[in-house]
Amino acid sequence: MPDREVDWPAYLARFHAERPGVVEDVLSRSLRSDHNPYRWLARAVSADAATVVDLASGSGPVARELALPGRTVVGLDLSAAELGLARRRGAGPLVRADARTLPFRDGSVDVVTSALGLVVVQPLAAVLSEVARVLRPGGVLAAIAPAVRPLAASDLRRLGQLNARLRGWPRFPGPVELTGFRRTLAEHGLQAVEDKRERYRYTVATPDDAWLLLSALYLPLTPQSRVAAAVDHLCDVAERRGPVEIAIPVRRLVAIK
Ligand SMILES: C[S@@+](CC[C@H](N)C(=O)[O-])C[C@H]1O[C@@H](n2cnc3c(N)ncnc32)[C@H](O)[C@@H]1O
Predict the structure, then answer these.
(1) How far apart are CA 181 and CA 5, in angstroms?
(2) CDD domains, per this entry (predicted)?
């Protein structure tokens, strides 16, 4: 169900104008063995994909991860601040546009990627309809999205303690778990070929680590005092017991037109 309590377009515009790059800064430090979720997403893209569009590209982590000689990766986002940072961090070409009305010709793109974009840009059906339009036949949609599993019992305890300080979970404009995704894809002529989950971990050793993590979460209804209480809690645990691992479950979805 869409979240009707929050003016999401206004919240997202302000969040990304004030904190460009913060999502990348957290996810790029979220590790599973030797890699982060952006590298995992990039692994779903075939080496011969010549034209890639990254939707809701933010500060450009996916575009940079996918850069190859002979390949064009276009980063597309609504936020001027995110795109400005993407440019400074070396991503390009970049387009300021709405993911619900893509400025590309029908059938002109080999691969569309998105890191978290499918739970942010709503309604999802409008995005998928545009993705299906711009992909060539046989083209691929590869996306990563937040997930609620896999989580160990200790992860649930730790997240429960944070939740108690925040008095609420982080939210997204769309459902955190994309349900019925296979059917929604099929309705747009896209066939799901992969749906995998992995647990990444973000380590909090210092107050800066804790602040960075909390500032990357969408918490539109949470007062700053509760965010500060969550940071204090993490710092307290890190001081008493050493670095704290926060589980970040991620889902990777791949579909073919
Ligand atoms: C959670 S961030 C993810 C950014 C980037 N993919 C990353 O992983 O760092 C979501 C991004 O969606 C962008 N966004 C929100 N609504 C959008 C829309 N309608 N069209 C294009 N981008 C949008 C925001 O500006 C923001 O950069």
Answers:
(1) 24
(2) AdoMet_MTases (cd02440)
Determine the distance separating the centroid of ligand 1 and the alpha carbon of 117, expressed in angstroms. 6
pLDDT digits (tens, 9 = 90+) for 220-248: 999 999 999 999 999 999 999 999 999 99
Residue 1 predicted with pLDDT over 80: no
Cβ distance 62 to 86 under 8 Å? no
| Most ligand 1 atoms within 8 A of CB, residue of 7, 8, 12, 55 to mutate | 12
Give the rounded percent of residues in the chain with a pLDDT score beyond 70. Answer: 98
pLDDT at 2 over 70: no
Number of domain units in the chain: 1
Find the CATH number of the domain harbouring 29: 3.40.50.150
Nearest-angstrom CA–CA distance, 227 and 117: 24
